[in-house]
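Chain A, query sequence.
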Amino acid sequence: MTPARQGPPAVVTVVGIGADGWSGLAEPSRAELRRAEVLVGGPRQLDLLPPECAGERVAWPPPLRPAVPRLLAAHAGRRVAVLAGGDPVFSGIGRALAEEAGAVRVFPHPTSVCHAAARLGWPLEDVEVVTLAGRPTARLAAALHDGRRLLVLGATTPGEVAELLSDRGFGPSRMRVLEQLCGDRERTTEETTADDWARTRRPGDPLGIVAVECRRAPDALRLGAVPGLPDDAYEHDGQLTKRHVRAATLGALAPAPGELLWDIGGGSGSIAIEWMRTHPSCRAVTVERDRVRAARILRNAERLGVPGLRVVTGAAPAALAGLPAPDAVFVGGGLTADGLLDACWAALPRGGRLVANTVTLESEALLADARRRHGGELVRLAVAHAVPVGGFTGWRQAMPVTQWAVQKTRTPAPGAAR
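Chain A, predicted structure.
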């Protein structure tokens, strides 16, 4: 790598390139690569360029994302062309470069997703794309629904995908792997089940896309797309917001794409997990003071497809210090901790929501006082289940849950009472 230079920010061009290499590029993309003073990419991508691309060749140093600002600074003032697989702004390096370099020029190439859908005859609007490059394989679990078609990118091996499908009750799913699309070594494997692939542990090409037609095993637990998963979906010790109350709670929290939830008193993590399952961009931090339960939350999150859930082990409100500002807060435990509700309210921005549940009279009194000060809605949720009573059937009432739900409609002035 050349030494750092003084000068204006680098002029960065991003060029998508496929397995077909130089021959598959349009002339405007070729012209940019010929003009570049610095050519950046993976070793495989750089090897696809002919000698007429005379710029200095720089391979990405691992890890890639932290290297971006250093590399741009080292080549400030030079014409830099970055090679990316397919469409650089579709799960590619284009986003990182735009964030670091500001304006970038992008010359896209047809994505492997487009090629795969064309080979399979799958309408793209009916396909869900799951990217695993640099991400845990467990996030695939959130996309598993009977009858859905998935294209999985960036899997380390097809075997890992197959093993996850089998483990989550989708072993009968049909799998194919499409490799080196548009290249000289393009091939599509024969269709088989995930169970079969997991047993044989067949290897796959690094430039492969795993195509999955989801089929749930008849005895597998059915997980829907909306909050209120079966209680049996969770590993727990009894500290679990039960299914019907959970559904009502998520309805009050009203998650939207990109929002962040604080889940305080995580228990088994069910509220945070189902918040994150509503959209791939939803984020959550759960605070749990018990280390055994905190570890259990992580296991539940991985199994249910949201391994990005952050778990903070500690007691609130002290454990809230330094957390990013939430869009919504759920308090499922620890309401009587001194200053907890006030700390949560102060952390919320204008428009933020707070929902708190309790089953005790002491905490209910706190919620009534909070409603008096801040407004909102106070409701009581009661659920009864039909159970055997001798030779007949009767109702067994669960403990009623008092719920306070409120939206913060104004931001206090600095120093004002909150």
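The CA atoms of residues 17 and 86 lie 5 Å apart. The two ends are 54 Å apart (CA to CA).
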